[in-house]
Structures are given as C-alpha cells and as structure tokens.
Amino acid sequence: MTRTFVFVLSLCFAASFPLAAQEKAKLPAATETDTRLHADGKGWRVDMAKVEDKTRPRVLLIGDSILNGYLKQVTKSLEGKAYVDVWVNPYCQSAHTNKVLGEVLKNGPYDVVHFNMGLHGWQEGRIKAGTFEPLTKAYVQVIRDASPKTRIIWASSTPVTVKGKPEELNAEINPVIVEHNRLAAKVVEEMKVPVNDFYSLLADNLPLARGDQFHWKPAAYQLLATEATKSVLRELAERAK
C-alpha cells in the first residue's frame, strides 16, 4: 500500500507544506502552466511504499507524466525484491529543482535512483542559456551527496509527436528534446551514470504514440517498464557486490 501526497499549484515560486509527522521532508508545491504538459490525470506527487522489511532495497523512480504510464508495471515486477517510491513532478533543470530533489531524497536512503526529466523544459526561457549541463551535473551530485552508495540511472526523454499524427515527430518541440538528451547524455557519461535510452526505444515505435503529442499507449509504457525494471535489477545487483 502506498500513501499519496498530491502537490498543489505554483511552478517556480511555490510555498512549502509539511508531510505527515513521520516523514522526513517538506516539499514545495508544484504545477505546470502549460496545459499540454499535464500530469495525465494522476497528479504531481510523491508515493512512498510502506517499508516492512528494512533489509529489502529501496528504489526511487523520478519522472514526469510519462512515469505515470510505467510505474505500476515496474513496482509489480520489483515486488518482493525492492520497495519502490515514486516522485512524479513537472520540473526541469533549475536550482529550484535541485533543492526540491534534496528534500525528496531525505525520505531515503535509496539503493537505486532512476530519473528522467526533460519534457517540461523545451519551452524557450524555462532553462537559462548555458545552464543545462551544469544544472544536470548538479542534479546528479545532489543524489550522490545524499547517499554516495546510491546507484543512479538516467533515462532519456521520450519523443514528441504531432497532435493527431502520432507517427510524425513534432518539428518544433522534438529537436529541443533531442538536443537536451544529447547534453544530458554528455553529462551522465562524464559522471559515469548508466543510461536507459527511452527516446530511441519509442522513436522506433512511433505507432504506439497516443496522438496528443506527449503520451503513449499501454504497449509503449510496457516497453519502458521492461527496460526500467531490467536496469534497476542490474544496479541493485551491482550495489550488492
């Protein structure tokens, strides 16, 4: 059973609210002003597994609404092997994001953190010029500072298609996604972080796009879930050595 904390509105200048008394963190509120980048009906939130066996590994999945599409499959696949916490959020690279990440990580420590961020940062001005790489590097460093032994996995952002034409890539947005994936891949390679190439996986399966530009059909989310599960199990095995 999980406990859900639903985030209330405000993108960049959000107030804080306390979690339940037994929680360790205070999390700022979150929202998305671009209606195209909604939470897909499930809300921005932190879901925390109920830990009953303290010897069992803990995993944190971080992502946007795409995570909503595959988290249940991953959680089910890891049942009995790891507890899975989930942070579904609308953040892109920023100092604010890195600060919030630090608060979320106080709910750990985690053996594996699998993170994806990118669909909420394509609009001009959201990420200041020249800051993408240092902010991404700082994001990874926040995780390492919180728990040096945590295994980290980065998942590239998924393709953006034309509304109503799911087999066609969006000529305005998708090139930005590709460039941000390139920059992030450069950072994680330098920091020796393994990669889940979600972009290529779905770019080869565009007929599985839902047709609303950003989201996907269940078969696509199953592909992501399979890759995420494999990578988490691999890193848990490495962590246990």
From TrEMBL:
The protein's name: SGNH hydrolase-type esterase domain-containing protein
Keywords for the protein's UniProt record, in alphabetical order: Signal
CDD domains: SGNH_hydrolase
Native source species: Anatilimnocola aggregata
An example molecular function term from Gene Ontology annotations: hydrolase activity, acting on ester bonds
Top-rank taxon, per record: Bacteria
Signal sequence coordinates: 1-21
